[in-house]
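Help needed: design a sequence for this.
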């Protein structure tokens, strides 16, 4: 077996009615269904070999190889039907299909049945497909696999790691001005504060509002990771700007889009209550009132933006 074959990190059995599908989640997050269990669930036990396609693509599995099914097989399905080789959690060799493929295979039989081209044995497969499709419609094949394998308990953490990796740099970027003067001018106007363009000192409450308006609108977990990488020092300030840790290809562009949208809403608002309503409608999020309604105190200083 090739060295780059993925390994299963989670495995289990997916039960839909009387049908049982062995499933697994691979180390790259791919959800797969055992090739043999797919055939068995659809009433096609025996060899898992396939019939070679004329275009040289991977052989179609025997369950789709009948000539009367050909008109109902999409080009996308033909390309995606390639079995995935992987190692089971016990170290054995196995083959499976991406979980998303099974509903498409089922639809081939259901469309063929609707066109009245199936033979008697294929009608039995179509009946099994109908049962499977009903099960998928209730929750969704990915969610079903995650529940059956226990991957749902690790999924959120895994997805968070991927998001953090996409948004946050491992190295600090050189400083660049990301928050335009307009942002502070409009924020101060709406709050009824005196704005001095020559001063870079900001009340600490401005930092709290910026977290609420901008950084909290980045994907979940980003603000917390920025705070971890750029903590408040003993002198009560941060050594760097949070945005210096954002990736230039995804993190910074997202920040800039949020700023543009927020400034536009600020300019369209005659007062703070109006802005709050517009902002909450544009960027709905639980707990919006917590910081946006807090009273301001003059004695707080902030140098972290």
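Sure. Designed sequence:
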């Amino acid at each position: 077996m090739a060295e780059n074959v993925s390994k299963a990190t989670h495995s289990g059995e997916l039960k839909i009615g009387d049908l049982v599908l062995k499933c697994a989640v691979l180390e790259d997050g791919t959800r797969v269904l055992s090739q043999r269990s797919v055939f068995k669930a659809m009433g096609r036990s025996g060899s898992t070999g396939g019939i070679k396609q004329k275009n040289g693509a991977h052989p179609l599995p025997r369950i789709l190889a009948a000539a009367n099914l050909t008109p109902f097989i999409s080009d996308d399905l033909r390309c995606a039907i390639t079995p995935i080789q992987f190692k089971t959690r016990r170290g054995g060799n196995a083959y499976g299909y991406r979980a998303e493929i099974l509903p498409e295979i089922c639809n081939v039989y259901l469309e063929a049945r609707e066109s009245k081209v199936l033979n008697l044995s294929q009608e039995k497969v179509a009946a099994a497909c109908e049962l499977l499709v009903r099960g998928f419609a209730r929750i969704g094949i990915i969610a079903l696999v995650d529940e059956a394998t226990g991957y749902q308990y690790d999924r959120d953490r895994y997805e968070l790691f991927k998001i953090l990796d996409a948004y946050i740099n491992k190295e600090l970027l050189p400083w660049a001005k990301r928050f335009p003067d307009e942002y502070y001018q409009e924020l101060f106007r709406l709050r009824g504060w005196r704005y001095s363009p020559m001063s870079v000192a900001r009340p600490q409450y401005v930092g709290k509002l910026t977290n609420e308006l901008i950084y909290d609108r980045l994907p979940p977990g980003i603000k917390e990771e920025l705070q971890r990488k750029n903590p408040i020092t003993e002198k009560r300030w941060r050594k760097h700007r949070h945005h210096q840790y954002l990736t230039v290809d995804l993190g910074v562009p997202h920040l800039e889009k949020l700023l543009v949208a927020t400034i536009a809403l600020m300019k369209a608002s005659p007062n703070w209550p109006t802005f709050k309503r517009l902002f909450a409608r544009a960027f709905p999020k639980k707990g919006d009132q917590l910081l946006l309604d807090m009273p301001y105190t003059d004695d707080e200083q902030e140098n972290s933006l």
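The CA atoms of residues 20 and 225 lie 41 Å apart.
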